[in-house]
Amino acid sequence: MQGVALPPPAHIGIIMDGNGRWAKQHFQPRSLGHRAGAQNFRTITRYASRIGVKYLTIYAFSTENWTRPADEVGALMRLFKDYLQEALRDFMDENIRVRFIGDVAAFSPDLQALIAEVTQASATKTGMVLNLAMNYGGRAEIVEAAKTFAQKVEAGACHSQDLDETLFEQYLYTAGQPSPDLIIRPSGEQRVSNFLLWQCAYAEFVFFDILWPDFKPEDLDRAIAIYHSRQRRFGGV
């Protein structure tokens, strides 16, 4: 696979969507759709790293996904565990630093332990930063950031008048990272679904009528080309 002719934006976010519909189209249970989506996640992540993306944020499991049928949630948890075990075994050969954004305390103790192990094992990597949004919700992230700042004010560590956008961003899960330049959503849906609500203020969105398991590296190339065709004014003229 050849790299894209145009340089990729520094930070790309992807809302993985369409696994269930892909399974239905292929007369398979939803769990196999999620497995196909997980395999494609590996492919796209490695490709993004290879073409020079500096930050890749993947929406893997939202705070709302807990309302899905118990068997589907269980299958997703097993997939997460398989991926993390694979990351420790094989993925560490890639120069990718893995971070987790979201309330991971809601996961089982063994999954939390794997999350901590993968985070630590990849901490010295110097290549692309992969943010895995797990049990993540944009509104919850903003509320938690506000609570943390309020606690510091109550403790006398800072004053309420100190708060501005730059300071507030230091309390987000993505502190220290640039906001996403490009957010991609396959599956034909055209909504943000509580993903990076603060950070996506000036992101370019590209929607594809392609289900996530069928999303190919050339589709990522195409999204990057669309991104370069846009004029980003950031509210200016």
Structure write-up:
The chain is α/β, with parallel strands linked by helices and 237 residues long. The chain has helices at residues 19-25, 30-50, 70-89, 109-121, 138-154, 165-169, 217-229; strands at residues 11-15, 55-62, 96-101, 128-136, 182-185, 204-207. The chain has a six-stranded parallel β-sheet, sandwiched between helices. Helix 1 packs across helix 2 (30-50). The longest helix is centred in the first third of the chain and has 21 residues, at 30-50. The radius of gyration is 18 Å and the shape is globular.
Structural descriptors:
237 residues, alpha/beta, 7 helices, six-stranded parallel beta sheet
Explain the layout of strands and helices:
Elements lengths: L10 E5 L3 H7 L4 H21 L4 E8 L7 H20 L6 E6 L7 H13 L6 E9 L1 H17 L10 H5 L12 E4 L18 E4 L9 H13 L8
Parallel strand pairs: 1-2, 1-5, 2-4, 3-4, 5-6
Helix pairs in contact: 1-2, 2-3, 3-4
What is the residue-averaged pLDDT?
A: 91
Largest sheet, spatial ordering of strands? 3-4-2-1-5-6
Fraction in helix: 40-55%
The radius of gyration computed from the alpha-carbon positions, rounded to a whole number of angstroms, is 18 Å
The shape, in one word, is: globular
Main beta sheet strand tally, sense and closure: 6 strands, parallel
Low-confidence parts: none
Structural class: alpha/beta
Total strand segments = 6
Number of helices: 7
SSE ordering: EHHEHEHEHHEEH
The fraction of residues assigned to DSSP E strands is 15-25%
Distance between the termini: 38 Å
